[in-house]
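Same chain as my last thread, 370 residues:
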Amino acid sequence: MTKLPSRADHVGSFLRPREVIEARQHRAADNISYADLRKVEDAAIAELVGWQESLGLKAITDGEFRRYFFHTDFLLQLSGVEERGGLKKAFKNDAGKDVSFAPPVMVVTGKIAHEKPIQLADYQYLASKVREGSTAKVAIPSPSMLHFRAGRSGIPEDIYATMDEFYADVAAAYRAEVDSLAQAGCRYIQMDDTNLAYLCDDEQRADAAKRGMDPDATTRQYAKLINDSFASAPADMIKAIHLCRGNFRSSWAAEGGYEPVAEIMFNELDIDAFFLEYDDPRSGDFAPLRFLPKGKTVVLGLVTTKLGDLETKDDIKRRIDEASKFADIDQLALSPQCGFASTVHGNDISTQQQADKIRLCIEVAEEVWG
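reply #2:
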């Protein structure tokens, strides 16, 4: 049976309220203090927690309201990490238009170290607002984000003579963060990983090879890195990972089914739950689920966060049935395919459509699993 709080879950981010966006802009212009920004975020998060619980969600997040990008706000708080430019990519959407976007690239400028807790205060505030019977969930970027977008060229040899040293320091930094959260009572951490999903895309695999990476060996290395990062987690902590093909203003960056990474990912990653995007044909079929071993859960992302149109219950149930031909239905759960706002910009849907999609996941899960 799944370790998840409920068969209906979600990836974590929600559309930012206008007051949060404006407060962030005022903070960037130095019109308000950091403490003033936190007060606005606190109020919005308290309201969001109540909203999630009113819908029936059992896994509760802060919506990533305190972040600009899903990854940079976290990674830049590690010692030895800086932001440099971006890896330009034409994101695509259902309108057939390309959205030019260069997600920031994290580069290594010194030894990677965890000097202070990063999510601790955020978790403690979230947990203080979550009622009994619900679980506070923390989403953090995968440690692979420090490698994939720049590759070895982003890790100077005069800082790390070998990649083994680099991976060891990254894992140690992440373990320290997991430890700080665990000691505060956190029992649900999800790592958001674009890179394993990108390694399912032929174009992205070719680009990775140009950066000197062996795509298959990289998949195995990332599995080890994530395992090492979670190595000290308590036995009762839910360890999850979300594979994302890019999520910027309802657009995506990668395509392709999970076949290139599935066998390694499912069997070598010591993870309880895999949040997989399955909202449209670019995600491929369910055949890769045949590699899922007992004791692990796949959360089927069958409800898109990129379009406002609401899926039908019958269509979702049909797809759950298709997936159950490759994995035991007791090892499956349901969620939206991604977050609703992986960046502060948010996807091109309304707050009502966001609520409708969460409610749909909950109702279908109740009807399928009870």
